[in-house]
Amino acid sequence: MKQIIKPINKPFSDIVGDVVRHNPSINELDVSRIYTDKDISVYNDDCMKAFKYLPDNSVDFIATDPPYFIDGMGDDWNDKALNKKKTKAGAVGGLPIGMKFDPMQGKRLYKFFYKVSQEFMRILKPGGFMVSFSQGRLFHRLALACEDAGFEIRDMLIWEHSGGQGKAFTHNHFVQKMGISYVEKQKIIDKLRNRKTPQLRPKFEPIVLAQKPKDGTFVNNWLKWRTGLVNIDFDEGQQTTIFRYNKPKKAKNISHMTVKPVPLLERLIEIFTVEGQTVLDPFLGSGTTGVATIKQHRKFIGFEIEKKYFQISVDRLKSYEENI
Ligand SMILES: C[S@@+](CC[C@H](N)C(=O)[O-])C[C@H]1O[C@@H](n2cnc3c(N)ncnc32)[C@H](O)[C@@H]1O
User: Fold this and answer.
1) What is the pTM of this model?
2) Averaged pLDDT for residues 176-196
3) For residue 205, which of 281, 136, 289 has the smallest C-alpha distance?
4) How many domains are there within the chain?
C-alpha cells in the first residue's frame, strides 16, 4: 500500500521538493515531529516557530481556520484546559464554550493574527490568496489584522451549514436565586417570557478572503507567479460568495471540536490554485485542509501545536492515502 506520509530519516533538504527549500535552521528540528515526503509536510510545532522553515514567496495559497479566541481557544490553546471547560459546561457558574462575551477576545485575536499575517505576507507568492474561517463577532478583527499586515481584503465568503446549536438562554435560574418571594420571582419570569440572551442560532461562518498585492497587472502577475486569478466556473454554475456544505458527521477517529467539511476545502482549493501548487494550513487541527489538498492533487504544508491533534491529522492523511 502506498504511504506517502512517513517520518523523515534523511535531511529535510533531501526530501522536500523545490518549493520548500532547505533552510539552515532546519537542522535544529526534532525530526520525530515532522512527517513528510515530497508533496506533504506536516509539523507538530507552534506555527510562529515553524514559519521560519518556509522561504519568502514559496506558497501559492493559504487556507486556514485559526484559534477563534473564544474561551481558551486562543494563543493559549491547550487541549486539557478546553476539555475542563467542556465538562464544566452546564454546571452552575460554567458557560458552554463560545458563550462568554469578553471584549478583549477580539483585541487578542487581532494581536495574534497580525503577527501570523505578517508571516503569511512573506511566505505567499505575490497575488496569492489567503482564506481564513472566522466567526461573526470576531470577523472584523481578523480582517483588520490581515489588512494592517499588508493584505488586500477581497471579500467575505460565507460557509452556510445546517445550523449550529442555539446558545441563547433565559434568565429564569438567576431570578430563582434572587432574595425575593416566590410570587415576585414568578412575576419577573412572566415579564421576561420569550426574552433570551442575544445569540441567534448560528447558520454560517464568515471566511475572510485576502490577497497579497500583485506583482504588476493581473496578467503579468499570473504569467510570473501563476497566482492572483481564480477559477469560479463549475458544472453546477458559477461559484457565488455563499458555500453551502453540511457540517461533517462526527467520526470517532477525528476527535476535534471544530472540524470543517473536506468538500468545502476542496472547492476553495479548486478556486484559488491550479494542480501541483502548494497549499499551507498553519492551524491543522484534524487535518481537513491536508485531506482536501491531497484529493485535489496539490502539495501541502501543515503545522499543528497540539501533539494529539497533530497525530489525528497524520493518521487521517495516512489512512486517506492508503484508501485511494
Ligand atoms: C480551529 S482549529 C482547526 C480545525 C481544522 N480546520 C479542522 O478541520 O480540523 C485550530 C487549531 O489550531 C491549533 N493551534 C492553535 N495555536 C496554534 C499555533 N500557534 N500553531 C499551530 N497550531 C495552533 C489548535 O490546536 C487547533 O487544533
Assistant:
1) 0.85
2) 94
3) 136
4) 2
